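Renewal narrative, Specific Aim 1. Our central claim is that a sequence can be written position by position from structural information alone. The example that follows is taken directly from our test logs and has not been curated for this report. It begins with the structure tokens describing the chain, in the order in which they were read.
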């Protein structure tokens, strides 16, 4: 059965990486979800931090894009194989890849084909500075190593938050704390530079589609 959005999963506008952090944690706490899907956090950005996403709640008008410096979603990718491809049958819910995006106008979760198709146009249709790269990080790694002191949300001119922060304390994963890190969001998750010491694997749109469409086994 496809897991529903937990009622107690926090949401704060403009803090997508933290919203996804808690959703990853909720799903990892559910044995059935862990046994059925690989749980991943996916950070969307590029080297210029100007990615164009469609179907976003913050869009200024219908059928227009939002330009984000980065965005974060959760992906459930099947662990059950791909027997339907061999039999030429329709995949079951448990054999598909699903994407959770708190800030999308699309159904939550959405089948990956629907979400990608309506959110990320082919790279050939976009100027290079608006094309998305995807940093795919396992749920466990995201929980253990993520750290943000929210300083990226402070306006330098007036030292106030650009958007009101969540009411709970800042997040520092246990392994980040062990290494004395309090803030690695921008350097290890959002950065898409080839020299970045980031977690997970960075993919372009084509590679991300291939990853979404292929089950673990």
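The sequence written for that structure reads:
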């Amino acid at each position: 059965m496809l897991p529903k959005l937990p009622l107690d999963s926090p949401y704060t506008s403009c803090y997508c990486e933290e919203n996804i952090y808690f959703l990853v944690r909720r799903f990892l706490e559910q044995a059935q979800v862990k046994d059925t899907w690989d749980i991943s956090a996916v950070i969307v950005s590029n080297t210029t931090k100007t990615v164009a996403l469609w179907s976003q709640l913050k869009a200024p008008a219908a059928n227009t894009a939002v330009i984000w410096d980065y965005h974060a979603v959760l992906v459930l990718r099947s662990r059950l194989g791909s027997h339907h491809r061999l039999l030429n049958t329709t995949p079951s819910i448990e054999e598909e890849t699903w994407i959770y995006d708190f800030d999308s106008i699309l159904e939550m979760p959405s089948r990956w084909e629907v979400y990608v198709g309506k959110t990320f146009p082919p790279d050939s249709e976009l100027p290079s500075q608006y094309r998305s790269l995807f940093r795919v990080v396992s749920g466990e790694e995201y929980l253990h190593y993520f750290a943000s002191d929210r300083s990226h949300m402070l306006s330098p001119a007036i030292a106030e938050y650009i958007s009101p922060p969540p009411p709970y304390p800042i997040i520092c994963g246990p392994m980040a704390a062990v290494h004395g890190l309090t803030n690695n969001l921008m350097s290890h998750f959002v950065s898409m530079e080839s020299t970045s010491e980031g977690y997970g694997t960075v993919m372009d749109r084509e590679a991300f589609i291939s990853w979404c469409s292929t089950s673990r086994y």
